[in-house]
Amino acid sequence: MTDVLISGAGVAGSTLAYWLARAGLKPTVVERSRGTRSSGNPVDVRGPAVPVAEAMGVMPALREAATTATTMSLLSTSGRPVARLATPAARGRRDEVEIPRADLAAILVEAARPHAEFLFDDTITALHPDADGVDVHFDRAAPRRFDLVVGADGLHSTVRRLTFGPEQDHVHHLGLYVATLPLPRPADNPHEIALYNIPGRLASIHPARGSAIAAFIFRGPPHPDLDYRDTPRHRRIVLDAYADTGWRVPHLLDALRETDDFYFDAVSAVRLPTWTRDRITLVGDAASCVSLLGDGSTLAMSGAHTLAEALTTHADMSDALRAYEQRHRKLVAPKQRNVGIAAAWLVPKTRLGITARNLSAKAMRG
Ligand SMILES: Cc1cc2nc3c(=O)[nH]c(=O)nc-3n(C[C@H](O)[C@H](O)[C@H](O)COP(=O)(O)OP(=O)(O)OC[C@H]3O[C@@H](n4cnc5c(N)ncnc54)[C@H](O)[C@@H]3O)c2cc1C
To answer: 10 Å Cβ neighbour count for 202?
Structure first.
């Protein structure tokens, strides 16, 4: 086996391309965007992803782009700080990094780029697997044949839909939405993440290096007809959810009105009984999204590395894919079990819930 097609140049896809090339295989990455996209909240690279990043030689670049936050301030409904928690960076944790998602994706693409073929601005339209390979049709490129196809194309994976059926069979809405956008000005305090809650809604300002990122995370019913690429509708949903909200929210909404470069999605978990069919497999959010509530980027990097390692240490591809899935599911399962707890902490439903959360945060601090 030599030719591997990876759909998606995100966190999982770029990591996988790097490791497959290092093992002497020929990865091709097809990415729907024209280049790497700039939106996304800070994400964590920690635990099993750290040795992967170290071995790729990207850890210095990740540290350089890492956020500088040392405290997380929980604000009262009138915007006053009521509890402050230390971030891992403040506790001297050098073995984990918090970094804007866009910077992480860009650094990983740059690491993989010299070793893999990248097809930007394209997508798979049809997959025809047989016993020896997969015939792939693209929207723009000419059809090609690959030994293996990997769906690393995120929550709304095209490879998953073409192989395992409609999205609604596997994607479970967790009752929350998330929108994030870069702000035109740096945060007032480059070391403080500010979290403002009112019942069912969170607005936050997260400092990054020389800039800041706003996030809106809020409860809402499923919109069954929601097109996840309908930017004007996403903007309207956020504006409606935060109308008449205090603190700095009106300014954050002004920034949202003025940009198309924002990320919006329903916070969702992806659950499938198996990640592999024939010569097609899934990795990262496409296989097992835990959304913003459980180390998605860390799992994407470590899953990609586990898959590359299995493919290079097993002579038989089916054995390799089985070994990858068995090993990586052990990391994913506990994270998927905890998403409800994280949601309740981050976005309490009631005023009483916000007060109780803030009191418990104060107590944690001691
Ligand atoms: C622009 C963006 C912003 C994000 N912001 C946040 C955030 O603020 N908070 C949060 O919790 N999570 C966010 N995420 C999701 C987060 O990055 C993932 O949960 C995590 O990094 C897992 O990585 P992944 O590689 O599996 O998926 P992703 O990092 O989502 O990467 C998937 C890649 O596949 C590409 N893709 C999608 N469909 C196709 C297709 N049909 N053909 C080719 N390529 C395709 C996407 O453009 C993307 O580059 C964001 C994702 C994106 C793409």
So the answer is: 19
Q: Does a structural domain hold residue 223?
A: no
Give the β-pairing of 211-219 and 124-129: unpaired
Q: Which residues pair with 6 in a beta bridge?
A: 29, 150
C-beta of residue 311 within 8 angstroms of C-beta of residue 25: yes
Residue 307 belongs to what domain range?
3-38+59-66+99-170+269-339
pLDDT band per the 50, 70, 90 thresholds, residue 173: confident
CA–CA distances in Å: residue 141 to residues 121, 258, 291: 10, 34, 31
* Spacing, Cα 361 to ligand 1 middle (Å): 31
Reduced 3-state DSSP string for 65-111: HCCCCCEEEEECCCCCEEEEEECCCCCCCCCCEEEEHHHHHHHHHHH
pLDDT digits 0-9 by tens, 329-349: 999 998 887 777 778 888 999
Residue 231 lies in a domain: no
Is any ligand 1 atom within 6 A of the Cβ of residue 306?
A: no
Q: Check which CATH number belongs to the domain holding 307 and give it.
A: 3.50.50.60
Cβ of residue 196 lying under 6 Å from some atom of ligand 1: no
The arithmetic mean of pLDDT across residues 28-40, rounded, is 83
3-state secondary structure of 284: coil
- How buried is residue 114: exposed, middle or buried, by Cβ count under 10 Å (0-12/13-18/19+)? exposed
- The string over 318-329, giving b where at least 16 C-beta atoms fall within 10 Å of a residue's C-beta and e elsewhere, is eebbebbbeebe
Instruction: Answer yes or no: is the C-beta of 325 below 6 A from any ligand 1 atom.
Output: no
Domain contains 291: yes
Please state, in angstroms and rounded to a whole number, the distance separating the CA atoms of residues 336 and 366: 29
Give domain status of residue 13, yes or no: yes
